[in-house]
Amino acid sequence: MIKLGYKHKGLIEPLKEVQGMSQLLEHLEYGENVKVVNMIDACKGHFSYGIGCFTEKPLVIITYDEPSTKQISEDMMALDGKEKVYIYPARDILFYNADVHSMDITSQRIKVIEALQKGEKAVFIIPIEALLNPLSPKETWESYTKIVQAGECINISRLERELVQMGYERVGRVEGMGQFAIRGGIIDIYTPIDEEPYRIELWDDEVDSIRNFNVQTQRSIQKVEALRIVPNQEIIFHLDLLKEAIPAIKEDLKKTTKALRQAGKKESALKIEEQVGEAIDQIQNDISPRGLELYIPYTSLKLVSILDYLPKETLLIIDEPVKTKARCERVLEEYGMSMKDRLEYGHILPKQIQLIFEYEHLIVRMETFTKLFLMNFNAEVATFDVAYTLSLKVHENNTLYKNLELLEKDLKEWKKDNKRVIILSGVKAKSLRLMSELEERGVIASYSENSEEEVKKGQILIYKGVLEKGFYYEDLGLYIVADKDLFGKDKKTKKSKKKHSGAKIQSFLELAPGDYVVHEQHGIGVFKGVEQIVIEGISRDNLKIEYADNNVLYVNINQMDMVQKYVGSEGKAPKLSKLGGSEWKKSKAKVKGAIQNIAKELVKLYSQRQYSRGFCYEEDTIWQKEFEAMFPYEETGDQLEAIEDVKKDMESDKIMDRLICGDVGYGKTEVAIRAAFKAVQNSKQVAYLVPTTILAQQHYQRFAERMADYPITIELLSRFRTPKQIKKSLEGLASGKVDIIVGTHRLLSKDVQFKDLGLVIIDEEQRFGVTHKEKLKQLRTQVDVMNLTATPIPRTLHMSLIGIRDMSVLEEAPVERKPVQTYVIEYSEDFIKDAINRELARGGQVYFLHNQVKDIEEKAHAIQELIPKARVAFAHGQMSERELEQIMLRFIEGEIDVLVCTTIIETGLDISNANTIIMNHADRMGLSQLYQLRGRVGRSSRMGYAYLMYQKDKVLKEVAEKRLQAIKQFTELGAGFKIAMRDLEIRGAGNLLGAQQHGHMESIGYDLYCKMLAEVVSEERGEEVAEEYETTIEIKLNAYIPGSYIPDEIQKLDIYKKIASIKNETDYLDVQEEIEDRYGNIPVAVYNLLDIALIKAMAHDLYIILVSENNKHVTFKFKENAPLNAEKVPEILKEYGRNLKFVGGKEPAFKANLEEAGKKELLSNIKNILHLLKKLKSE
Q: Which pLDDT tens digit goes with each residue over 566-603?
């Protein structure tokens, strides 16, 4: 429903003047069907919005394909605001049976169900196939929806049962939608309708507080009074219903297997017997089977369509009813054919085909609503009566105003004919510039941000707003010109930045028993778990680490900061160290020597650049600011920071050498484009160097598009250019006519001469050869250099190199990206066929990943036989560079539908039309590989699909099983995602520091390598490096985390790690607050642990090596030669009184008698003494 007092009155009000509009509105008011003919696609969103405003009826628009859904929804969002437009996507009817699939579509659909259930005033856009999916009735949905309020009482066991029945999964730590966790009196839950998860804290069984929390940090954000918990699945029912259906399922199975065996399909019969038999066992044991919904047709469950959720006064706007019906029939036909194949292959039983509604069912349901049909031509609407037809006189705006002369000519003519003109633009800077340029040409236009302002006859209004395309209402004399008509490409409105938008790359890593760890003093071992050791009645938790020859080391939790998880190359096991041997010390010494060499080189290069004087660029010009304002997306925070860093470098007199690091699509190119624009503004030339011909072509096009409105000459130097074109480009570079040149290593040839080169941008430098790298090294001392890389550089390494390497890291994902729908699915040719056909049907392309060169050609032939109409080709790394280039180029240009390839899919390539990737033998691939490969799709506004396929094997190797589990986690970006990121970061570190350093990282583990690198860099720069010494705390108090408080071993270790990292009182309070927030009231043993960690940090800061307590006599022993102010000793003794003594010697000490203190006061007294001892620190 769209309320009166609607937005954009100036755009909408003229529609009332359309001839026949009042009659149309009258028929709609009486509940009669009408149709509007001679429409054009461009005006459908605008017209529908107007109808919604005039009728005030709830509005549902039914579309027939993805582009029509996209165009209408984007126009509606631009007019009515994004939060008031809902899209109800179709469920996956072909891949419902996947082991794991992404939650995004389910979440989007549930948000629509919930909005309808609550009677929200919004516009709902529904593709026709989405109406085919059955749902539970409104009453069932409402009965399973729970509202939890502060102050009410909750039975935790009952709540857990209810959540499982509602489709939620119980986990140790909530990381994705549809999960919940219970820890004592704390319940975490992430519903599919909320942006963030919520934490319910109980006091006994009463709800003490409800607050949302950040899924990454797990910390609470703010309190709320109530939480609405909706089901996490669209069909909700009790497993008892399935139990009743078991006889019917068995009967159908018996008939099916008999028919399959008679047809000679024994294998298919065995497969379906095994599959259904397993499901029956699970149902009998109260476990939800895989593909649960497959068994619903055997029950008496009543299901409905989303149409049953609509208010009876809803106005259904049906876009192109003929096409809508054809689309629905085609989907049903595809579904029928797919199900027929599956029946033959033993994937399903006959009755399981009844999973979706027939078209006739939809007709019956639609009959109850008033309908408005939008039609490009006047054709009969089958099955529905139409009371009135309105013929619209509207035309497409077919002129593309690439230059102002064309626009000026039309505007003058329209003004002379007394027409009304609205020019829409989403960017204010561009609108104002257009207005002043038109004025210079004698065309007077006014700019308005006021959506109420109406355009008068003979007036030209430049209006802040966005529509997909312009059009002309003939009988209204109204021209609407959109951004796309002016600038020739889609412009996205800037999106407001959300506080918790795109996910950042996390470097936190979880430790589990069986993982390799590195102890700084003892080397690489295997973590066996946490063991509680009781000595003299005092309980402490220890990490148990096993070394070579089965020797075991117990590490007190206080010393946990000495232990890190070993991270080397993925899938490569390190050699275990020997306890007490000299081998580990030798390894560390060898690595330190290698680090010193590289640090010397880096420091030397950095110093040279610091003392060389480069060109000083001027501050941003008006053109620069205007150019940046025309960027059609919202910049991420990281992007703005990187742009600022680059400008500071350019405006200073030092020579820039900056590394810009960020994943593909995170906005590195825009940073480079702005730097290049700045260089050209200062009359300097720019060279953009890329590793391959295809990338050169893509970047050249991007630069040319982005700078089309400015007098900047951009050229391309690559094999795709003719000798004549190359000659012309080279002459232009030498004379200064060419401002920016994009090219491969050809740019480093001797015949390439610049008139005044100012900036060199290098894309993925590690992919260039040694000779080229040497040339680039020489360039670095002469001109500004910017290096771009898509391999993540870890924050830790970044910090280690601060001061010797200028680096900007883009970690924030752009908000516009749609998440890739990821499925983990058993290998099946009929699934492959369905996935490829689906992508080809929407005009897209497919990657089929087969990582074995020996039979890749055979695989390509098999795919070709499977889908004869598809154009299939294959590509792998053993082909010649030229051959590979030609195949990739054909793929980019759309001449190949399916590319069967190895993992050589180029990392930087942007093929926005390839939106499906099928990965064969996904269980054999590393997680980081899967993460990067999945990033090849979903790079445009279209939904991307990734199918991770594995071969079904009854005896899956344990490693493959583990990997499959990790892949399943990885679909929801859980812990597996973090591991994948860390592996990629190590690769990035190797790229940055060289292959040899990569080997050293593996020998001592990545974290220790980074720590040593930071120390060596400080030494090389002449900074004082603090001497290493250990502080031991021996206080006889129970200090551990009870299993009853944090039962999950991994989370317990995480908290131990945070406690061990406490460095000061701010950290202490922060960790205490987090523990209480996540796990509830803190037990005494955990408080002791926190206090001991703070005591250790305070003592270490004072050069104390031992704090030891024996019968309440506490010794504070200092390290030898500690830089203390001895003159302060008498003052300290006097201030504390007779219970504190000082003992001199090599290792001086203070001894305190704390007999009068109770157990509770012991720790606070020790802290007070340490505060007093701070006076000893030399000023």
A: 877 655 678 899 988 888 999 899 988 888 887 887 77
Output phi, psi for 165, to 5 deg: -65, -30
Length of the chain: 1179
Residue 404's domain comprises 396-487
pLDDT winner (highest mean) among 648-662, 672-686, 1004-1018: 672-686
Classify residue 428: in a domain, yes or no.
yes
- Are 287 and 119 a contacting pair, CB within 8 Å? no
Domain ends where: 196, 229, 262? 229
Q: Tokens standing for 643?
A: 């742009």
Residues 644, 793 within the same domain: yes
What's the CA gap between 349 and 351, in Å, rounded? 6
For residue 207, what is the domain's CATH number? 3.30.2060.10
pLDDT of residue 502: 33
Co-location of 759 and 805 in the same domain: yes
Distance in angstroms (rounded) separating the CA atoms of residues 353 and 351: 5
In a domain, 493, yes or no: no
Whether the model pTM is above 0.70: yes
- 645 and 746 inside one domain: yes
As a three-state string, the secondary structure of 460-482 is: EEEEECCCCCCEEEHHHCEEEEC
Span 141-167, average pLDDT:
94
128 and 154 in a single domain? The answer is no
Q: Over the stretch 466-525, which tens digit does the pLDDT of each residue have? A: 888 889 999 899 999 987 777 555 444 444 333 333 333 333 346 778 888 999 899 999
Q: Which residue has the tokens 């054909």?
A: 890
What is the number of domains present in the chain? 7
The Cα–Cα gap between 164 and 162 comes to 5
Give every CB contact of residue 991 below 8 A, 6+ residues apart in sequence.
Answer: 766, 789, 791
For residues 42 and 396, the answer to whether their CB atoms sit within 8 Å is yes
* CATH number of the domain encompassing residue 796: 3.40.50.300
CA distance from start to end of the chain = 71
DSSP string computed for 869-904: TS-EEEE-TTS-HHHHHHHHHHHHTT--SEEEE-TT
| CA distances from residue 639 to 170, 298, 660 in whole angstroms, order as listed | 37, 55, 10
* HSE-up (13 A, CA, CB side) for residue 963: 20
- Domain closes at, from 924, 946, 973: 973
Residue 884 belongs to some domain of the structure = yes
In a 3-state reduction of DSSP, which class is residue 115? helix
Do 751 and 703 share a domain, yes or no? yes
Q: β-strands 179-183, 471-473: how paired?
A: unpaired
898 backbone dihedrals φ, ψ, rounded to 5°: -125, 125
For residue 373, what is the enclosing H or E element? Answer: strand 370-374
CATH at residue 1115? 3.90.1150.50
Residue 983: pLDDT band by 50, 70, 90 thresholds? low
Is residue 449 within 8 A of residue 464, CB to CB? The reply is yes
CA atoms within 13 A on the CB side of 541: 23
CB 187 within 8 A of CB 159: yes
Looking at the structure, tell me whether residues 641 and 762 fall in a common domain. Answer: yes
In this prediction, residue 494 carries a pLDDT of 43
CB atoms within 10 A of CB 1179: 4
354 and 424 part of one domain: no
Confidence bin at 942 (pLDDT 50/70/90): confident
**Residue 721 and residue 863 in one domain:** no
